[in-house]
């Protein structure tokens, strides 16, 4: 007798078993075997070789890793920052017995807290949130790839901003922090010569007078040379008369000029006319060859005679060489001394040249010297001396007082009140 099972009693359907593909032969093996993982690995290796990185398995440990021998400064700072101060170590209690408690004091009454309404509390909270609110930055979802062993990239201009220029920090010159050599060697206050004293010795005063006279004579000589070089100025009427005579002088006629030009052209043609050329005979060529040989022999004999003469005066030549050597050494020392004087001298820091003050104005004659301190008059200007000293030590540039220039001439007006008063 057949029994029918209820629907709930039915079992789950059984999945049919997949039939294994054939692996007989190379073609079937290649077609039915999955080698996707192996191909991905091989593609990754080929890509590394194409980029020049190479396989990681083939590289040594030195190429992959680097030994840090310097250490991290942050760890060292953190270790030393945890150390207590000496004052804190002294004040730290080391006794096992607790200290005596002090006398209890009455606590100060607490200040009554202010009560805010709900509206005020909401307003204060809103204002506080607005002050402390910060805009959150979104993190880039894309993962950046960096080469750990690559060199740090140089500062380049972004491709999307071609107008931007690379900024370089201005380099401070080394001479900015160095004092001028003249400011170090030359003293700030140069003492006056002994002859400039209010009661000098006779010899010192005479020596100072001679130096002042020599300086004044040199200045007068330079002025005289400048006047000699300058052209002599003629009166206006003489210049006008000479110009009029030059204009009234008769000029050569055009015909004479034309004839002279034709004659000059004929002379030029005769001068530059090519000479007739002809072929030399064998006798003439032999004669030229003998003449060249004779000239070469004569030149060789002259050189031999000069060599014999120079060998005879070898001692004189050695003396001349020694003299030239001494002159060269003197010239080199003179140049070195001039270079040192230039370094210690006044440099041109502006368009104006530094003019050393003349000593003629500071020298007094013998009869003008005071016989006592009561008759001594104040001379010179300390401010001017300090200013000239700064210029002489190359600490400030040289300047000159600019002349006042008026664009228009001053006009004089007569007011109406002045006219009525008259």
From TrEMBL:
Listed Acidic residues bias regions: 259-271
Domain of life: Eukaryota
Biased composition (Basic and acidic residues): 105-116, 224-240, 281-304
Keyword Nucleus: yes
GO biological process: ribosomal large subunit assembly; rRNA processing
Annotated Pfam families: Nop53
Subcellular location: Nucleus, Nucleolus; Nucleus, Nucleoplasm
UniProt GO cellular component terms: nucleolus; nucleoplasm
Keywords, ordered alphabetically: Nucleus, Ribosome biogenesis
Biased segments, Basic residues type: 20-29
InterPro entries reported for this sequence: Nop53/GLTSCR2
Magnesium as UniProt keyword: no
GO MF: 5S rRNA binding
Region (Disordered): 1-29, 94-116, 224-304
Family of this protein: Belongs to the NOP53 family.
PANTHER family attached to this UniProt entry: GLIOMA SUPPRESSOR CANDIDATE REGION GENE 2, RIBOSOME BIOGENESIS PROTEIN NOP53
Function: May play a role in ribosome biogenesis.
Listed name of the protein: Ribosome biogenesis protein NOP53
Organism field: Allomyces macrogynus (strain ATCC 38327) (Allomyces javanicus var. macrogynus)
Source taxonomy: Eukaryota, Fungi, Fungi incertae sedis, Blastocladiomycota, Blastocladiomycetes
